[in-house]
Amino acid sequence: MNSPQDDVLILGGGVIGLATALALLESGRGVRILEAGKTGRGASHGNCGTITPSHAPPLAAPGQITQALRWMFTPGAPLYIKPRLDPALWRWLLSFASRCNRRDWRASTWGRAALLNDSRQRMAEWIDRYGMQCEFVQEGMDYVFRSRENFERHMADCEAIREFGIDSRFIEGADYLRAEPALKDGLAGAIRFPGDARLRPDRYASELARLVRERGGVIEEDCAVQSLQADDAGVSAHTASGQRRGREAVVAMGAWSPQFGQWLGMRLPIQPGKGYSITYSRPRRVPSHPITLKDRSVCVSAWDSGFRLGSTMEFSGYDTTLNPTRLAALETAAREYLHEPVGETVEERWYGWRPMSSDDMPLLGRAPRHRRLWIAAGHGMLGVSMSAATGQLMADLITGTAPAIDPKPYAPERF
Question: Are strands 242-251 and 6-11 parallel, antiparallel or unpaired?
């Protein structure tokens, strides 16, 4: 625990840091993870666990500004921006707004699709090869609609994204209900994405941590990094437990990454996008696929071990309160669609900060002006979905191996 210098320090023990550690260990490198809290308890702990190549299109899309303006000051809407003076947030919003055009939308969709498709395949390989117990099922995911207008609009969108390798199937409401008795009457239709999958994210993170430890990686929990220094000889992290030094280091701190960037003279355009979920005991009747109640932007996931409602996007800084209005919106949406919208027992009410980059793509690669420092952050709502590809890409870049996908779209120096 007190070695003078480790091989690679990884700052952050979420799914991105853990997946990067596993890939590095499999490449023959040594790793030490420094985690401020408990491993896997950050942004990925309470999400709905959907693995979604279908989500390749970015949030920054033509027409998104108009929709956002309708929602942004309504506390129960899918998107909420807490009114406050925050120059960094408003710079981020302006940058995001500038990308709501067709050209930038296509560029981001290509980049996100490459990472998501690689990760979807690689994750299935990892889970099979390593015997990971995380309730992984390759069954697709469904968008369901009560609004005919919204259904038809999304069908047109699906036709537009087939060129990115995203397959979809359209199902009329009556046909869908015959196969899904857990849902109430009144559906206009559903869109199935057969290439998607699902798992239980907290168990996925636990399994990654197990694999890292079994392969000789060190994970230090409750080890908050207080400052960071990098030079040509390596990287020093000053923690509450003393100094840790590595030959190289990876910043995988999610929504906290901008703070670390400031210490090193970098501006990382990442904002914390707060998401919420409620986990219950499993009801008797649940959908056979993970579903998104698309008219309400709420995700529903059922596992053998539980049931979860999640989603929403709130820009309120690093606010640590559970917003009852946001939580209530999840249950209200579920009651509109499901015969059994909640389980008998509430197991957890949760929030987490998603690291939202201004162009809705992660920052992956060597930090500008720092030879020994690497960045793996800004995955937004897709940290779990992108984790396996991110881990392998980072390991390939650090070890000088030819990567499976082109790293240029994710290079931190684009900012």
Answer: parallel
At what angle are helices 201-214 and 15-26 packed, to 10 degrees? 30
* 3-class secondary-structure state, position 102: helix
Spatial distance between the Cα atoms of 314 and 134, rounded to a whole number of angstroms = 28
Percent of the chain with pLDDT over 70: 96
Is the model's pLDDT at 1 over the cut of 50?
no
Distances (CA, A) of 153 to 149, 176, 239, 336: 6, 18, 51, 21
Domains of the chain with bracketed CATH: 6-414 (3.50.50.60)
Q: What's the pLDDT score for residue 311?
A: 86
> DSSP secondary structure string, 244-269?
EEEEEEEE--GGGHHHHHHHTT----
- Helix or strand or coil: residue 183? strand
Gap between the Cα atoms of 371 and 53, Å rounded: 32
What's the rounded Cα separation, in Å, for the pair 410 and 264?
A: 20
Strand partners, 31: 8
Whether the model pTM is above 0.85 = yes
* Average pLDDT over every residue of 162-177: 95
Kind and range of the H or E run holding 219: strand 218-220
Q: What is the pLDDT of residue 72?
A: 64
Tell me the β-bridge partners of 353: 274
User: Among candidates 309, 273, 304, which has minimal Cα distance to 291?
Assistant: 309
Q: Which residues face 192 on adjacent strands?
A: 142, 169
Whether the predicted pLDDT of 371 surpasses 80: yes
Average confidence (pLDDT) over 249-270: 88
Compute the CA torsion angle 194, 195, 200, 203 (nearest 10 deg).
150
Instruction: Name the pLDDT band for 80 (thresholds 50, 70, 90).
Output: confident
Q: At 312, is the pLDDT very low, low, confident or very high (cuts 50, 70, 90)?
A: confident
319 to each of 173, 223, 240, 298, 340, how far by Cα in Å? Answer: 40, 22, 24, 21, 32
